[in-house]
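Sequence in, structure out. Go.
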Amino acid sequence: MKPTTPPKTYRVKSFGCQMNVYDGERMAELLAEQGIAPAPEGEDADLVVLNTCHIREKAAEKVYSDIGRLTKGKTQQKAPMIAVAGCVAQAEGEEIMVRAPAVSMVVGPQAYHRLPEMLDKAVRGERSTDTDMPPIAKFDALPARRKIGPTAFLTIQEGCDKFCTYCVVPYTRGAEISRPFKDLVTEARKLVEAGAREITLLGQNVSAWSGEDDRGRACGLAGLIRMLAGIDGLERIRYTTSHPADMDDDLIAAHGEVSKLMPYLHLPVQSGSDRVLKAMNRSHSAESYLRLLERFRAARPDLALSGDFIVGFPGETDAEFEETLRIVDQVGYAQAYSFKYSPRPGTPAATMDGQVPREVMDERLQRLQAALNRHQVAFNQASVGKSCAVLVERKGKLDGQWLGKSPWLQSVWFTGTAAIGDLVDVELIEAGANSLEGRLSRVGDAQQTA
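Output:
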């Protein structure tokens, strides 16, 4: 690799989960601190960061495909400098350097705060890989948050100790670690000062967050939420993703007591079959999961529920898949995410007997998604006639049209006089599968729910 001129523009392309979106934003801020500007829309960037996710099928192959597209038909002088970050970088670091000579840097999700140092090496013609996993160190090295939109992500916890047999997260993100309480409150205040009115707390297992509050008392996620709710200017709090094993009484109570905590809960179940759940190393049963949801709904009756599902896990029978359909009907999810099982190298499930044929998984996924879509439409239709606060996030395609989110994380559009960041009172007047139409009532300190 020959020395090159420092890049003047960058583009970060993030795949996968909201944690990756947060990491992508932070890498962009790091690059901006180096005097590198985001590439204008439609123009090539001097530096491209592929911020990868290892959850989806053939994740590594898609990275190489992207690298090929970035370099196809271009000389070394014209091709962008490429950095591969994220979970695929963590899992396949040295292999990427061997297979893709066009890549200058490979950096794992716990080491991206060292991106500026790696960039300096790349400019000198040196390729480098950093997949160390120092606990929390990166957050202390990241720059201050700058002006952002009305919604923001805040990572409070990383890693997972659950070792579900299908999942690579414990291997690519490491053990569960929680950021200090004081650091989180400080960052949340800065996010609000920078324009955020809603903050979503993130973690691979966000409900496992723990720490000590400003008085030295043991504190869980609920305690952190209660503290953040006292920040002036912060109007909404959400969190994702949780594990049923870590949902405690205080968190359940917070849903009924903290008005700024939105009535929305994403709680993955993965399967409705107890045998499959045990094979997945999930610590809950279908029944215990349903009882837990009943407790949340008792605390907050208008709670919207979301979940994750995997179809075709090794050994899953037709009868066991039917159990998943039953739990979908019992819960009535407002939203959900569903995937076909795909083996991840190094995970126990990858070598299990009874791998389900692709065509069977395809058929099951279609049936599951049809059921989930039916319930999502029903939830949206049941919202018609309600009045609620909508947080305006962006302009629509038509003049005077605005788009935002309801307290239940539904996409809502309306026309009228408003501005990005406003909380507006809206009556929901028509429901579609993926969004609702609203009629603007007024702008201002809108009430969160009817």
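Check: The longest strand covers residues 387-395. The chain has a mean pLDDT of 91.
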